Structures are given as structure tokens and as C-alpha cells.
Amino acid sequence: MSAELKEKLGKFREKLLDLSRRNPLIQFSHRPNSRNPNKQRFIRIVNEVPENLIEKLQRSRRFRLLSKPEGENYDFNLRYASNKTSALVKKDSKNIQVFEEEPKFSLSCNLIRSDYNTYLQDKGINVLYVAVGFLKYTSNRVGSTKKKGSKDEKEVKTPTDIYAPLILYPVKLTREKTGSGFNYYLESEENEIVVNQSLKSKLQKEEGVNLPELKFSEDKPLIEKYFKEIYEAILERNDVNSESKWDLKRWATIGLFKFGKLAIWDDLNFEDWPKNPLLEKQLVKDFINGVPTNAVENIGDMEFEQDEFEKNQFVEQVPKLIADADSTQYKVILKALEGKSMAVEGPPGTGKSQTITNIIGGLIVKNKKVLFAADKLAALEVVKQRLNHKNLGDYILELHSPTKSKKAFHEDLKDRITKQKKRFFKPSYEESLVQLKKYRKELNEHVNAINKEIKVNNEKKTIFDLLWQDINNKLKISGNKNFELVKDLEDNFANDRLSNLKKENIQFIKSNLNLLTETSEKVEDLNLEEILQIKGIPESQDDLEKLIRDSLELKKLIIEIIDNLLNEKIKLDQIININKDDFDSDLESLDKLLLLQDINTNFVLDDDNSSLISETLSLVMDREDKENNLEEWARPFLDNQKKFNLLESCLEVIKGIQPTDEFQTINSLLEDLDYLREFTNYFIREIGRKDRRINSQLTLKNLSLIFLFKNEIYLNYSNIQDDIFKLLDSSKNSEELILLIRKIKDIQRNNSQSKKLIEKGLDIEKVLEFGSNNFDESIETIKGASPFFGCLLDKEVRLVKKSWKKVAKKTEKRPSLTEIAKVYKIASEYCQNLSKENICSFEYINLDQLKELSSKFRFDEKLENLILDIKNKFSNLTYLKIIFQILDNQKDDFLLKDNIPSFINFENLNLNDVQNNAKNIFTNIKTKLFLLGDQSKEAILNTSYSNISFILEDLFSLKQNISKLALALKNSNLYLVNNLEYSLTSSEINKVLNLIGNLDVSNYDEFLENKTENKSILNLNKCLKKIKKYISLYDSIQEDFKSPILNKYLVENLGKKYDSKNLSIIKDLLSVIIKSKSEIESVIKIKRYRKNIIEYGFKKGIDELIKISSASKINPSDIFDYFYIKNQLKELSIEKKINKYDGQAISECREKFRRFDKEFIDDSSAYIDNYLHKDPSRYLIETNTLGGPKDLTEGKLIRYEIDKTRKYLPYRKFFKQARDSLQRMKPCFMMSPSSAAQCLPKAIDIFDVLIIDEASQMNPEEAIGLIARCKQIIIVGDQKQLPPDNRWKSSLDDEDDDYTEAIEMDINESILELATKVLNTKDCSLGWHYRSNHNSLIDFSNQFFYNNGLTVFPSSKIGSEINLVKVENPHYHQSVNRPEVLKVIETLRSQIIEDPSKTILVASMNRTQAEEIKMELDKVTSEDDLISNYISSHKGNLEELMIKNLENVQGDERDVVIISTVYGPDENGRVMQRFGDVSKAQGDRRLNVLFTRAKDKIFLVTSLKSTDIRPSQSSTTGTRFLKEYLSYAETGKIVDTTIRSSGKPENIFEEAIMNALIKRGYEVDAQVGCLSYSIDLCIKDPRDTSRYILAVECDGASYHSSYSARVSDRLRQQVLENLGWNVFRIWSTDWWRNPHNELDLLDKRINDLKLELTQNEKIKTTTFVPEEQSSLFEE
Description:
By secondary structure, this protein is α/β, with parallel strands linked by helices. Helix 29 (about 765-785) runs antiparallel to helix 31 (about 795-805), helix 29 crosses helix 32 (about 815-835) and helix 50 packs across helix 51 (about 1210-1225). It starts with a helix and ends in a 17-residue tail after the last helix. About 35% of the residues are buried. Residues about 525-530, about 1290-1295, about 1300-1305, about 1535-1540 and about 1660-1675 have low confidence and may be disordered.
């Protein structure tokens, strides 16, 4: 495994673990909302004992929260456990006291409930906990002392107190309505208590502090013990770091916390997996690296048809669709069942959930183990609901959240085991497939027969084409009163005349027939005899016209060249004889010379001038060599003497500074000068206050030494600075100073010996009395004693032992003789040294003072050397003390510099001189640099001092060269511009030399004879331009002679060998043909037309056609078309071939196919249920487990767990110990990424297929663990919808950022975008849109987001279902628009009154407004039974009334959506151009989701007009789209595209039907729909023209192209009927046989519908019966 791969995985994991202070698990704020202090997202519990509080919640489950009584006061800290507090808990066991009083209590409860319910609806996860115990710890907050971005900005770290929860217990907050308002209850969840792992990880990672584990006793958490261990850890930490104290707070708070990502973070620690996916699974590596993978099979070809694919498959092989699937869905389903991994794009309402349902059904019947994952609960629920509806829900294990009730989970398992098998008759199912195939085959045969290509007259056609062409031909001519003349000729017109005509010739025959007829009528009145005598006239009109055009052009050229040569007195032969290659080369050289910049065009081309150019070249090359050595920034000064002198002066001044560091930059040098000026100025001033004379005596060198000494003392010996001076003052010279130091060291040594003796138990006074000699004698006695018996027999030794009592303390026990000897040796030395110590002969210091100093000094070599250096350098310490005193009192930052800048010429100057010199030199250089300009100044400042001398030398040498070059250029006269000596390059001069060298001027002397012009560049160029013109004219004339038509004409009139140079004769002949144009045109046409028709194959019958055309006044081409198609119909016997395909038979076949197709899909779910239903013994694996219940696995464990009523096994353990059995009994798991990470075993490929829905909102890091567990990957989502939401990283109580500076959330790549790259999936998308029951609801998104790529079915209702609701007197303030809130409630109430059966979603464009709407709705609900009853009647996650903001509506849909745009005019009537999340990156995707949630209608409640939004160039796409949508709602138009498009008929067939209906008095629109799908003809309701009464579908090209029986003959019509359409189909075969009969049937259908609708409207209902809503294809 590469380190790079591990690093990338580490970065994925870092994104999941939010250890920042935005995470409420890391820093929980107990501050109320800044805008409304009465609204907060927490409630604080008081008067409880931690362990008793948790025990209460676990035992009783439900408690009423009591607000704080007025005037009462409570302590936040919970009590310690005692008999008294335990009794208090039992006494009041049904209530919990909180700190908040009214109205803050109720407002906060509602706010918490709102957020809790929103997250529960959205993610299916409980985020509400009671937090018990808070750790107070510190963190360094980084601030800044200056404005951000300024040069002097400095980061400042300020310790900040932070509070983080320790233990969290999951709860839910409910309420009950009372007469005075609501009572609020805290209810316990069934889940386990958890500790704050985020805090634990942060402290371990950043502080090195390890929090203890929470322990349990018989499932009871030992909280007090846990708190005690934490407190001990805090004390230990505080001992190490006493600056910032940590503490444990015994608080309890009800708040909102998120844990999901932490489980995924832990799951991605692949080192903990038995097999590391990074080593074992290539697909995981490729996803982490983000590169195309070879680990899965390519998706392959997506172009296939269902009918063909299923044609020969048996019942076991046919894909088991359990719900309808359109063509785009079917392709995805089939590829999924083939085992292909892919990323699927599913725009809004295109049936993602329906497709996933079909995929799951098809996979589990193939014994595949499926993991279906989605972050949003709704995405899983809608699929689960569909599978439940198909009786397959028992095979699904749904665990979206690890907080799901274990009781419900186990009941679900029990239901699966006890599930009764339903009766299923497989032969009937198989027979349905046989019948389905039969009728599908007949429908395909009909389509194939009509569309089968037939070869007729060497032309490939279909029967459908022939019928349409025959109908078209009839419609063209049957209306003519003389049509019978054509019919008569049809019977007598020989068929062989029209056979074997080539397709490509038909159009030519028809056009020539029309032209021949038209021209024939004109020829009788023309006089043609004279013109026909002209030779070489072409037979075709095109050729004649070309001949005339060519003649006109040629004549014009001949006249031009003759006139020009005559004027210039040039002969034609001179032009002809010029060598064109040499001429073109010379002209090109002259042109290039003229194009050269600054060239003197009057420069005469002769030998003298050429030598001057060579001299110039030499000087330029020399200058370029010198320039290459010169700094780039210095070059511009060469062309300005004044600037050059200034530069030279400036550099000379710099050169004279002489810094000790020659390699520092000039900028650094100037900084040092300026610092030196300030530095000396400061000391001159401060020293002057003490003694001004010092300033004229103290040198810079000495001051630097003092400065160094001071720094050394400050850094290492600041505590003894005064003592150092005292020591220095006490010595006359360095020799005496050395003696002093030695004396102090002796004193220190003696003190050390005294300390040792005391430690050994000796009394110092007694030691001194005993004396050195006695100690020495005792030591000698001990040395001479016998090692064995000396201590017993030797008297001297016994005396030594007794001596111990004389010198030791009374209580000190005597040691061994050896030890006594060691101690006595020290004592002897001490007595001797102490006597020497008392001898003190120093003049300026006495012994007591030395002893005092000895206690302060700790001498080492460094300190001794420092003190001696000072003494040696400064015999007079006055300077030193004054400077030290100044430095001790200074407060200026500039004195903090480590070293004083050093300049050789300043070292021995006194401070006054140093200050003056530094100031003068600094200002001099600064002034000169300023005058040189910014660019040069910066260059010089960045140049090192060592380069200055070299630059000066190079400048002088280059200046001399430029002077010589200027003189040479002036003499040569080659250039017009002055000062080129600075810029002219050698390549430019070489270019001139090359061009002049290529010219041969002598070739053009004859053209310049008798001319006064010299041979300058300009004159020669003009001369050659004229010659070029004549050559071109002559070449054009010769080229025209090559024209075949013109050459033929000239040859026939002048002979084959005519002289092309005799231009005058040719010009006269051309004039003849030009004059003849108008007289011969008609004859040529007649001749040409007849010849063309014969050559194209129509040889007989031309005259008959022309005659009947003239008689009937019908175009001959139309008559020809009529005869031609009739002939083909007869030859092919078309009537016999289509006899079986009449409209009635096809319609009956379609109805039977639709019935069997629907039945087969409905029965497929029963087939799957029958296949999967097995006896529990076949899927519950029995194991031989020994031990107690904790050791049970698989089937035994499942049976044991489902019989429990409490204390269930944690999910992860349950899944780990019984996974195989669980997967057998429930082959499809539905989970969120966090629940999968928390519950599933860490094992590779434990599932066959992974399906991820709403993948555009899922981060890659959330999916990596899922991918590791699965073999096949199917990622479903929409890249045009919401991106991954990183708001989980921020606190749940963050306020809206409309007016505050907020962190812009990162827009990360989603797993969908990553999968598209890795799986290399293209064009795999769903395309039919079903959600919107009116196309206006999706038209906007279809155009702006999907490039009109969705198949959108038109609505039978004309107009728009986007209802604009304007807010009167709006007022937007601090993220809320109160008048708009009230308008939303009013709109909601009106909708409920209008139709209480409709489900409703209220969506706001920011969170704060959504909260205001919820609060207002709560208030209204308590007073309004209408709304209250509506809410009660719509329960369940997919039906209930929801109020959300645009960030969490993805995946939701409702019949009606009420949108609050929130933003609008403020109190001053201004509309600020900030629109919350819409104005941020990906705001357009948020709008796309918001605008596509409605099935029936949208109410756009807004305080904005489209003109209020004024996007700038920097505005996001979201802002622009908001403006466009408002305009759409206002006008009903999207830019230039109307909501509903109705256009022209697609073909003549439709046009004929439309015209016939219009004649019968109906209003008809053609091609009604939205771009990708339209209905052929729509008839308006005569009683209400805002809707259509009938849709007429013709079996035109759109029906026959890409035919699929299910799509074309069932689904498309089914969708239209679900949208309220009545559909009538006209078959082309019936229309061809008897169009009048078809019109009568259509007319009857319209009248029946009118009658039916009239009768329905007369029926008055007294009760409302909700219309059953179809769930077909809903997302």
C-alpha cells in the first residue's frame, strides 16, 4: 500500500472528524439567539442527580418539563447523590424542573422540537439528547492586532473557556395541547447512553489528555464514578499546566447533537478491518484516487430495445419488473441485473425510486444480497413503501438510523419468520408471459411490416412511406375540379412508362416537366431565325449563361490591359517575357523592406550605402554583447543622459557606504542605515539627559559592544545584572576581578561542604570546635584499625566512635567506620577552608559582601568570560551603566533588534557623527531612488551591494558604444527615426541586408527609362506593382481561355489555332455573343428541358402529361407524383399486404397487450415473494454454540433476541454475530452511511450490490466504507441538484448569515460526480419526467438545468400552475419577512379549503423564515380547527405537512408547494442584493431542487419583483436564475420560450385532420407540448378553451421510430391519461382507406366527451371524496 494512498484516505477521514469549535460536541454554547433572546436551542435541567436523572429516563420514559416559577432561582450544578436527593427524585418522579421561565421556555421548546423533527424527517436520525456533565477546558483563539491584510498584522492567541458535553442520553420532546397552551414532555428513546467521542478524540489528539471510559453495573451507568475519574484527570492536567485551569461542570442540558459522521470516521480506519480494503480491493483504491477503474466491467452498449431483448427469454430469464419502467429506466435496470457498475443521472421526477425498486426486486430474485444506502430517510422510505405495496417489504431490513427502536426492529424480524406463504400459481404466470409475447409480437409485426424496406424501381421504401406519399398526392390534386381528367388518364397511362426510374432522377424529371410546360407556352411569339445561325451556342441554358458570363468577364479584362499598356507606353511582349519567379521574389523583398519598422523608404539601393549598413551592424552587435552583461533594470537609463547621471550618482553614493556584509541587498542596507539613524538618535537623546559629553566620546563600535553585553546579560543573567556591576565596581582591574571570582567560588564551595555535613547529621558548630586536626587523627586511626576485630579490641578506634557523639546531632545514629572516615574527611577540609575564607584583603569589598554575592552567582565559563570581557573593554563603567540604564527603561520596539548594523566607515565615529552621516546618506540615496522611478527603485533595492561596482563599469562601457552607433546610423540614412541606437537589433539589420542582397535592380532599367525617379526602395516597389498588375491581367485572360465553353465558342468561330495574343479580334467576337442573350434563351430552354427529361429515363408520355396539365391547370410534377406512387402501389400489391392491419384489429391487439403487460408486472412481485419465501430452517443458520446467551450466533441468536422485551443486543454485535442469517432472511438492507458504518461488520464484499440514492448529496468519504463492502456499485443521483451539505460541520444553532459574516461552506465533489469519473459511465440517465402533473412546473428546470433533455408530457390544462402571490407592505429584517410569513399561512389555509386531500410542503429560502412560519403555524393551529384537522389527517413522513428551508427539501415531494422567497424591501424600501444560500456557490442547484418538488401546483409567495434583482457580472448563477424564475412566474414565459408550445402539424396527414376538424367548428392546436414530447393534435373544450377535451395521436413517424410495445402502446398513453387526457388514435392505414369514416369516428368521440363532461358538472356532491392518487413513476 502506497503512502500516497494512505494519505488520501487520511484526508477523507479528516473531513469526517470535525474537531473544530463549530461542532457543538466540541463547544456547546449556552448563549441565546442574538436577535431574539427568548429563542434558544437548549434547555437547562436543574434540581437533579446525574445518575438518578438517567435512571428516571430509563425507567419511566416520559416526564413533563416544568418552567421556572417567577422569582425562583436555581443552581445550574446538579446535586451529588445522597439519601435526601434520592428521596427527592422519587417524590417528584413525573416532572423535571428546568431553568428557563416563560415565555423563553415555550419558545425554546418549540424551536428545539422544530429542529428535532426536521432532522428526523430529513435524515431519520434523532439528534436530541440530554447532555449530563460538561468539561470546561481552554483553547487558544487566534486573533489579530491589526486590520487583516495589513503589513503589521500579528496573530495573537487568547485562551478561551470552552464547554463540551460528556455524557449524552437520547430523548424526544413532545407536547400536548391544553386550555392555556401546551405542556411539554421529555420522552426517553430506547437507545443506549453515549459518551462524547468527538471530545475524547480532540483532547487525545491535541492536548494529550485521555478521558476515562464510562463503566456500567448491570446496564446502569456509573456516572458519579465517571465524573470522579474525569476530575482526577483534570487535576493531573492542571498540575502540569497551571496557566489555564480545566474544570468539571455538573450541568444537564437538553440540546441538539449530531454523531453520524464519527461512526464513518471510525469505520474508515481500514487497519482495523480483518482484510484491509486498500490491499484487497482495487475498486476502493480507484475511488480514493479518483481515477477510472478496470476493477469492474464496462457498462457496454446502452442502445437496445426491450421487445427484441425479451423475445426469446423464458419466464426465469425475463427481468422481473415489479413496477412500470420506461425505456430509459429499463436500460438502467437491465444493466444493473447484468451485474454492471454504473453512475445513473436521475433528474427530478424521472422515477429514480421506481427504478431502484425494480432493480432491488430483480436482484433479490437472483439471490443477490443488496445494500441500499441513502443519507435521507425519505429516499429509503419511498422505496420501502413501494416494496411493501408489492408485498416484498418483509425481505427488506431497514435501519436508516442506529437510533431506530430495537423493539420495532425485532418485531420486523419476527414478522419475517412468521410470514405466511401466499398462494401463487406459476403456470398462470408463465401463460401471462406467453400471451404478452404473442401480442407484443403482433404489434411489432405491424410496425415492422409497415416500416420494412421494399425495393421498388431501384429505390428502397417502406409501406408507410408509400401510403403517406399517396395520401399527400391525393390531398394536393383531389381538390381540383378537373381531377377526373387525371383519373381518366391514370387508367390509360401505361405502367411501364414509370417503371425502373432512378430515385435520384425523380426530382429532376418533375422540375423539368414544370419548366418545359411553362416555357412551351411562351415560344410562339418569338422571332428565332437569325440568332440560331450563330455557331457554338450551348444546348443548355446553364452553359449559355456561363458562356455569356465568361465573355463579359474576358472582354472587360482585355479592354483594361490594352488601355493600360497604351498609357504606360509598354509593349505586351515586354510583360510576357518577364521571368515571373525572379520578379515575384524581387517584389516580395521590396514589400518586406517597406513593412520594416522605421525604415527610410527613400533609401537608394547602391553599393556605397550597403557598406554603411555593415558598419552599423558591427556596432549593434557590440552593443548587444555589452547589454547582455548589464542588469535589465539599468538599460532604460542609456537613452536619457539626465537619468543616467542620476543613476550613476546614486550608485556612487551607495558604493561609498562600505557595509561589513557586502552581499546584503540595497534595501536591507537602507533599512540598516535608517535603523542606525533612529538608534543613535535615541541614544544621543537619552545619554544627553545624563551627560552630553559622552555622545562625542562614545564610538559606535563601543556602543555595539555594550549592546552585545546587555543582550547577553538580558538573555541569561538578567536576575544578577546589579550584582555583576557590584562585582565589577569592587575590583581595580581584571587581575583583582579574577581573585574576587575565585574567592566567591571558595565561599560557595565551603557552603556546599557545610550543607553536606548537615545532611550527614553533623552539627556545624561542634565540627568547628572539634577542629581539623582531630578529624585527621580519627581518619588515620580508622585506616590503621584491623578489619575484623579492630572495632572491639582497639581503644583508639573506640575513641573515634565516641567522637561521633561530639560532632553529630543528638538524634543522629552513628554510621560504620568507613562512612565515618568519609564524613570526617569532608569535615577536615571544611575546617581548613573556612579558616582561609576569613582572610579577606580586598580594598572595595568585605567578606560579608562577598558571602552575599556568592549566594547569587552560579559561575560557569561563559559568565566568567563575560564579566572579564566587560572589565577589559571598559575600565570606566560609567558609559556601560548609563547605556544599561537606558536599555532597561526603553519601551521602543526598534531596540529589540539583535545587532546594531555595522559599517566600516562608521565604526570609529562618535554617536553624533554616526547620526549625521547615517541621516545624510540615507536621505540622499532615498531622494535619488525616488527620482529614478518606482521600477528602477525596486530593482536597485533588490540588488546586492557587491554588484554595484560592476554595474557602474558596465554602464560606462555601454554608453561609449551607443555614441558611436548613433553617428553610424546618422551617416547611413537607412532609418527615419532617431535614438535607434538604443533599440536596434542585429537581427533587424541582418534582415535588411538579406532583403537588399536578394534584389537585382538592373532587370527593371527599361521600365525606368526616361523616368526621373532614382532607385529608392519606394520607387522600385511602385514600378514593380504596376508590372505585377499587367502580368495578373494577362494571366487572367489566358486562364479564361481555358474555359471549355468559351474555348469551344472561340474555336468554332476563329478556328482551332487562333492567336490568343490578338486581343482586339477576340474582343469583337465576344461582343457578338453578349448581345445575343435575350433572343435565344427560350429556345435553349425548350431544347434542354426535353432532352433532360428523356436522359433521366422518362421517355414516353411527356407530351400527354404536358397536354393534361395544360387542360386541367394542375402542375405536371404533381400529376407525375400521383401516377408514380400509384404505379408503385399496384406493382407491390400494397392493399393485400396491409389488409390484416386495420385500425380496429391493431387497437384490440394493443388493449390485450396492455392488459397482459400490466398483469405480468403485477404478478412479478408475487413470483418474487413465492421464490423468496422459505421455511425459517432454510435461512436461519443453526450453529453449535456453547456457553451463555452472549455466545449465541446466527439463527439461535435471532430467535433469542426477538423473544426479548428489553435489553436488546447492540446493533453492531447483533449484525456481527448473525449477519449470514439476517442476509438470508432479508436479502436487501436499507441503511444510511452512518448506520452502515456503526452496525455492519468490517468486512469486504459482504454484499453483492450497493445502490446509493440521492448521491449528489453524499460526500465520497461517506460512501467509501459502503463500496468496500460490495462487489457491484450503482450510484444514483442528479448532479444538477443539491451538492453535499457540509452544514453538519457547523453548530445546529448557527444563525442565518444574511447579515452576518459567515463561513462559506466548501462545495465538495459528491460520490455521484466521483463515480461518474471512476466508473466511466456516460449517457446513463433517466429521461421521462412524471412528477409534475402540469408541464409548467418542470419547464423552467428543464430548460435552464437540463438543456430541454427531459421528456415532459404536456398537460391538458392550458396556462401555468405556478401561482404568483404578492405580499403587500413587505418588510424584510434580520433574515425574516413577517408580512410574508402571514401571507404563507393565509395561502396555506386557502389551499386546504380548496382541496384538503392535497399534501402540502412549505419551503422557505432561509432557515430563520422557516422557523417563523413554524411558530406562526403552531399559533394558528391551536386556534384554527381547519388547519389542525388537516395536520391530523395527513400523517407519515411522505404525507405530513412539512415546513422546510431549501437546504433540506431534496427527496421530498408534495401535491402543492408553497414557496416563501423571504427577501424583499427593508424599512427603507431597499432590496439588498443578498439572497442567502441562493447567492452562494451552487445556489442554482438549490433553486433547481426547490422549484421541482410540486406535483400539482406551486404558490410563489414573494415580496420581490423580478426587476428588484439586479445581477452584476460577479453575481452567481443562483441569483440570475432567481430573477428568471420570478419573471417566469410573472409572465408565464421562460426567456423567449412559452410555457406551452403549440406549432404546425408535423406532416400532411396531421394537417389534413386538423383542417377537417377546423371545418367542423373545433379549435385545434398542433404539436402541443414541450420540446422533447408533443401531442400531434389537441382539441379545445368548446365550453372552456383553457383546457383541452381530446388528444389526437396519429401513427406518424414519431410513433414508428424507436418502437417499443410497452413504451409506445401502453406507457405513453397511460401517462397522458394520468395527466387527465382523453386520447384518440387515428391509424394511417384506416385514413388511407377511408379518411371520412375516421373523421366521423373522431367527431363522435368529441361529442360523447362533451356530453359526459356536461353530465359530470351537473352532479353536485355534498361530501368530498379524495381522488385516488396514482403513485406511478413518482420519485
